[in-house]
Amino acid sequence: MSSILLATLALGLAAPLSDAPRFGEVKLSTGIRMHYAEQGESRREPIILLHGYSDSWFSFSRVLTPLARETRVYALDLRGHGKTDKPATGYLMRDLAADVVAFMDAKGIAKATVIGHSMGGFVAQQVAFAAPKRVSRLVLVGTVRKPTNLAGFYELEKAVTSLSDPVPDGFAREFQLSTVYTSVGDEFINRAVEESLRLPARVWKELAGGMIATQAAVSLGRSGIPTLVVRGEKDAWVTAEETDSLAMMVATKRQKTYANTGHAVHWERPAEFASEVVAFRKETQVAAR
User: Fold this and answer.
1) pLDDT category, 146, cuts 50, 70, 90?
2) Could you give the CA distance from residue 271 to residue 108 in angstroms, rounded to a whole number?
3) What is the pLDDT of residues 40-82, one digit of tens each?
4) Could you give the C-alpha distances from 254 to 117, 189, 230, in angstroms and in order?
5) Closest to 275 measured CA to CA, from 15, 5, 6, 11
6) Helical H runs in 87-219?
7) Distance of alpha carbon 183 from the chain centroid
């Protein structure tokens, strides 16, 4: 039985076998062609999922089905990642955020819940900062106010500067394994590593530089966007203090820490994470309208 179906059954939901992720590409006004996965009926409220550094739509594969039960879910391959274009420039977090807004324009999405993990959390904050009226609510997972607050960021940035093509499998594997505390299975990790290896060395470097240049979106609290801040207790990248600092800077309605869980909460606790998002959405529906 697939991990996606197991996550859905754990929520007490029956997963329609015919409703599997569908894939597409769309040319954006920012000049790139973006690849994405989608699931759920078009009439439902949209959720946009933004993955972390070197990941892809696959990062959210374990939560697509339970989230799509009541929403329309779009999991993007951000600029430079997955099957999306990998241009020579444009790797500041605000550039990636502009792509997200352009994706919403291209798909006719007026407003959406935006969920970002790690680097995707920086992008989500930039989306909310640049276009607050387009964001119903934020869910920030394993992220901080600005990238350089990450515990191991400078060590990662230093390691990335020496990369050349082809990027070594061992480097991508070590990075992905650093994001989990409890096992997610060899098959899942192997696929995550495979997705990371889609990035040429120059994109790893450009994104690291883009994250360094990112400034914290300090005014998000004034936007009034309901925000759920999520962290794994055993996160090797984000400390509890950094999570608390982030929560103080946004219009936080809920803060959740998962025990015995690492940086990738949605990998290790997919059913619990999806359930938390569903509950948060229901709690904040009136405020988001």
Assistant:
1) confident
2) 29
3) 998 999 999 999 999 999 999 999 999 999 999 999 999 999 9
4) 16, 30, 9
5) 11
6) 93-106, 119-130, 153-161, 169-177, 186-196, 201-212
7) 20
The burial class, CB within 10 Å (0-12 / 13-18 / 19+), for 187 is exposed
Confidence of residue 287 (pLDDT cuts 50, 70, 90): low
Distance between CA atoms of residues 120 and 126, nearest Å: 10
What pTM was estimated for this model as a whole?
0.92
Tell me the two tokens of residue 184: 């997610």
Indicate if the pLDDT at residue 288 is higher than 90. no
Assign residue 80 a region: left if phi > 0, alpha if psi is -120 to 50, beta otherwise? left
Q: What is the CATH number of domain 3-288?
A: 3.40.50.1820
Is residue 52 within 8 A of residue 77, CB to CB? The reply is: no
Backbone angles phi, psi at 156, to 5 degrees: -65, -45
Domain ranges, ordered by start, for the chain? 3-288
Closest CA to 93 of 195, 180, 215, 3: 215
The CA distance from 97 to 213, in Å, is: 14
Percent of the chain residues past pLDDT 90, beyond the cut: 75
Phi, psi of 49 (to 5 degrees): -105, 125
Dump strand ranges (E) for the chain: 22-27, 33-39, 45-50, 71-76, 112-117, 135-141, 227-232, 252-258
